[in-house]
Amino acid sequence: MPKRAALKDIAQKVGVSTALVSYVLNNQEEEKRVGKEIAARIRQAAADLNYTPNQIARSLKTSKTHTIGVIVADIHYRFTSGVTKAIEAACQQLNYTVIYGSSNEDPAKFARLVHLLVDRQVDGLIIVPVMDCKKEIDYLHRHEIPFVLIDRIPPNVEANIISIDNVKAAHRSALHLAKTGHRRIAFVSYQSGLLNLAERKNGYLAALAEAGLSPDPALIKEIAGRRPADGVTDRVTDEVKQAIDDLLALSPACDSIFFATDTLAVEGLRHINALHIPVPERLGIVSFDESEAFELFYCPITRGRQPLADIGRIAVDTLIDTMHHPTTKKKVLLGTEFIIGKSCGET
């Protein structure tokens, strides 16, 4: 069995002290004022020698485990896979291991995951919050556990947050429907106390106002959707069907639908297709986010695209910054890309 590379081997290869190597591999080069060129050479030498840190020894010495806990809402969700891929890549560069947990939108499970990961002595947490999670956020603050919230913003919570500008993105989406000639623009979303969906609704309403359209409460459908993982059946499909049926039964009926999430859009398109309602001739469609399932639909769907890789990367950068500087306060709202298809009658 080949001898395991040690810090002194890297130091000899680069021609520096073992202390300097330790600073760089522990991500302290800025704090210790190590030059960028030297830091890059040290990391390259570590890679060339297949150096792997002895985490047990390191933990005993530094009280750090070099692990980061990540709590997501649904491990199968496209948003999750895109963001976690970027988190893993960023953590790997920094020699951090990632431990995942999925809350399945269940506040009780979310609470258990927070305490489990803290008990595992993770150095910090990246979290997609759920409803009613303020108690756990307060717990992390009280015990001085570094953490960053991503995607969703709970009300009345102080935290470092990486999200998108939901108001601006929703405003652009709904306004696009108005600009393509639609006047009875419906909005289908989830019921939620989280600010991201409330902001999407605000963006929709702002777009109507800019287009000179009066808001009609009958055109706004907010469904209860999936319940926590307590044995209750997922009711998204049935509730989306009912919402669309109600919108089409209005007099005058809606002529377009803005779906606040891609999961709602997929369920909605499935029902619209089953009803043989042509898109965009009869019904214009915009989805706030995109889904691989859109590729199977006969009409290219106009949709937003979130910067998933940027969210993951910036979340890791912010968490590391918070570990080194506990007073860090950061709220980053990223822009989204708008992909124009043909589902609104675009020419």
Task: Please give a structural write-up.
- The chain has 347 residues and is α/β, with parallel strands linked by helices.
- It folds into three domains: 7-52, no CATH class; 65-164 and 308-337, Rossmann fold, CATH 3.40.50.2300; 166-305, Rossmann fold (3-Layer(aba) Sandwich).
- The chain has twelve helices and twelve strands.
- The strands form two sheets. A six-stranded parallel sheet has the order 2-1-3-4-5-11, with helices on both faces. The protein has a six-stranded mixed sheet with strand order 7-6-8-9-10-12, sandwiched between helices.
- Strand 6, helix 9 and strand 7 form a beta-alpha-beta unit.
- Helix 1 (7-14) crosses helix 2 and helix 10 (236-249) packs across helix 11.
- Mean pLDDT is 90; it is low at 227-233.
CATH H-level superfamily title of the largest domain: Response regulator
The average pLDDT is: 90
Please state the overall shape, judged from the principal axes of the Cα atoms. elongated
Structural class per helix/strand content?
A: alpha/beta
The spatial strand order of the largest sheet comes to: 2-1-3-4-5-11
> What string, H for helix and E for strand, traces the elements in order?
HHHHEHEHEHEEHEHEHEHEEHEE
> What are the low-pLDDT stretches, counting only 5+ consecutive residues below 50?
227-233
Q: How would a crystallographer describe the biggest sheet?
A: 6 strands, parallel
CATH C-level category of the largest domain: Alpha Beta
Indicate the radius of gyration in whole angstroms.
24 Å
What is the strand tally? 12
